[in-house]
DNA sequence: TTCGATGTTCGTGAAACGTCGAACAAGCTA
DNA sequence: TAGCTTGTTCGACGTTTCACGAACATCGAA
């Protein structure tokens, strides 16, 4: 496990963000993280193999949507709300609303036992 | 040339919209159409072969972002601003702003002679 | 009717994507 | 030390995407 790359604020590209949000699993992950709380990798529940989940989290990270922090063998993920707001004002908010409207990504959630 | 399929308002899917906006050429096309005016196919200028341009316009159409109208052998394209606003309020506006910020899609424009 | 202009469709190829299981690396724990 | 847990990485596979030129269909003009 090596240190993950996170794009700087100014490096966040719109087309990458859009591409990252073009997959239901990833949209679901963003929805789960939408409340701004940090979540452990293990708390995330998605109907894919763990290698696939790792891949999707990487895409989100590379696009600048999330930040991953490592602690021992565990990882914690957060949505980069402030950075996104600074880079593309209003985008995240509106996209989160759109996710609700379309109810996309609802197959992703938190493992039982995670606090709401 | 057969009649193109346009998704209904309620059929417009967020992930498809996002996917459609994950390509610089298509973002550029949306920017060109952002003022709400109808544009002829021939007015559009993009650094790709015409078959490729046709492909991109199809992706935009299938995603519900644009509407294509046929008149004789010519096609006219418009952005479905009202439909998008109804389906995902605020999304288009915010994305258009983000396009400006990132200056993505500026390689696409109008052919000389088209009124601003 | 013949010609030219206009887009779409087809065939192709290269690249990217989503998915999986297996293998791996790194750090706790016993 | 050995073993377990956690997540990443590595092929492999099939699908999708983007790109092009060529062929085609359709309509208007000559």
TrEMBL record, chains A, B:
SUPFAM superfamilies: Winged helix' DNA-binding domain. Gene3D superfamilies: Winged helix-like DNA-binding domain superfamily/Winged helix DNA-binding domain. CDD domains: HTH_ARSR. Signal peptide: none annotated. Residues 6-99 form the HTH arsR-type domain. The keyword Transcription regulation applies. One of its GO terms (molecular function) is DNA binding. Keywords: DNA-binding, Transcription, Transcription regulation. This is Transcriptional regulator. It comes from Nonomuraea longispora. The lineage of its organism: Bacteria, Bacillati, Actinomycetota, Actinomycetes, Streptosporangiales.
